[in-house]
Specification:
Elements: H1 2-13, H2 45-57, E1 63-70, E2 73-79, E3 89-90, H3 94-109, H4 140-144, H5 173-176, H6 194-207, H7 211-220, E4 229-230, E5 244-246, H8 248-259, E6 263-264, E7 267-268, H9 272-277, E8 283-284, E9 294-295, E10 300-306, E11 309-318, E12 322-327, E13 332-338, H10 344-359
Antiparallel strand pairs: 1-2, 1-13, 3-5, 4-5, 6-7, 8-9, 9-10, 10-11, 11-12, 12-13
Length: 362
């Protein structure tokens, strides 16, 4: 077995040697994502090679993967620290942005008519006796923009709707539907896990499926995403605020779906208008987030200058530096995975990597 182990180790190390080459045995070709060379895609090759070398040489060893897609072509696919194409990672709160995409599918299918519908109307008082009348005031759009007004705040474990009070339950829906308002919906941005969980509850109630199974059938399957994990409790309710594990490449595919306005190959999975609304500015969050300017439909939006070029982009953000950056004007996606959970440097590092990639555009 020793020779085989040595060969496999060499193959894994070759993923992060600073070269972005065509497919090898551990990275077979993907029909929907043909490979393109850096120069052909408008990147300075030396700048990218220096970046990859720096990632390799800079501790701690908890950066996992980098994938860049431009013009529907795979330009960079690099893995680090023994991780490889099929490794799946906990993308943490970036899963919220995936939940927003699934709502777009539910709208297209007619499970949900529009984002102006109130949350109360999706649930039966007979089935859920604890259903709070306050939910008549909360619209789906309020859940998407983190402005539901519910007594929930991810930064305050004292809030009734904080995840610490329900995440370990075998069935958390009845608890969630009993959480009261603490402010008027639509007036205030408060980051809280309960909001995407309620979107998931609506989709699950209407589809009769867990969000995990709905995602597999309606989103992941069509995109060729075969390997993933999404925590789902004993009552078949999925943790839509996070708890989603994806490979770096599959993470990037979701960004490409956004770049292409909801279309994958020859299939329109999400309506273009819904995708365009993801980047609408709803709340200014620049005081709370050094990397995000505004928050829309469970996605952040920013404008920054890289290499003298002003670029608008939206991004999904997960603890530890798990970022999915979508730049529609460049038809470009950057996916970064990292396990620096709870460490401030995780976000800074991913932002710096993104900055150097965009500055390398010629």
């Amino acid at each position: 077995m020793r020779p085989f182990i040595l060969i496999l180790g060499l193959c894994l190390l070759s993923f992060s040697n600073g070269h972005t080459q065509a497919a090898d045995k551990l990275r077979p070709p993907i029909p929907e994502l043909p490979f393109a060379a850096l120069e052909e895609s408008g990147f300075n090759k030396d700048s990218i090679k220096n970046l990859l070398r720096s990632i390799n040489d800079t501790p701690p060893r908890d950066f996992r993967g980098l994938v860049v897609i431009k013009n529907n072509q795979l330009v960079i696919e690099e893995y680090f620290n023994t991780f490889w194409r099929n490794s799946i990672h906990d993308i943490r709160s970036a899963g919220k942005s995936v939940t927003a995409l699934l709502l777009g599918i539910a709208l297209k299918e007619g499970l949900v008519q529009n984002v102006e519908e109130d949350v109360y109307s999706f649930f039966s008082k007979h089935k859920y006796p604890s259903l709070n009348e306050d939910y008549k005031q909360i619209k789906i759009k309020h859940l998407l923009s983190m402005s539901s007004g519910l007594d929930a705040d991810s930064d305050s474990s004292q809030a009734i709707g904080h995840a610490v009070n329900w995440i370990a339950r075998a069935d958390w829906r009845a608890y969630l539907l009993a959480v009261p308002l603490s402010s008027k919906p639509g007036k205030k941005w408060v980051y809280a896990d309960i909001n995407p969980l309620l979107i998931a509850a609506i989709i699950e109630e209407k589809s009769g499926m867990s969000l995990k199974d709905y995602a597999q059938k309606k989103l992941f399957g069509p995109l060729g995403i075969e390997q993933f994990y999404w925590y789902t409790n004993a009552a078949h309710q999925t943790g839509a605020a996070g708890n989603l594990y994806l490979s770096t490449l599959d993470f990037a595919k979701l960004g490409l779906l956004v770049v292409n306005e909801g279309r994958w190959a020859n299939t329109q999975i999400i309506d273009p208008d819904y995708i365009k609304n993801l980047s609408e500015e709803t709340f200014d969050v620049s005081d709370n987030n050094p990397y995000g300017d505004a928050y829309g439909m469970l996605w952040y939006k920013s404008q920054r200058t890289f290499g003298g070029k002003k670029i608008n982009y939206l991004f999904a953000s997960g603890n530890g530096g798990n970022h999915l950056i979508v730049i529609p004007e460049k038809e470009m996606v950057i996916a970064l995975t990292s396990s620096a959970y709870g460490q401030g440097y995780g976000h800074r590092r991913s932002y710096n990597i993104m900055s150097k990639i965009l500055a390398a555009l010629e």
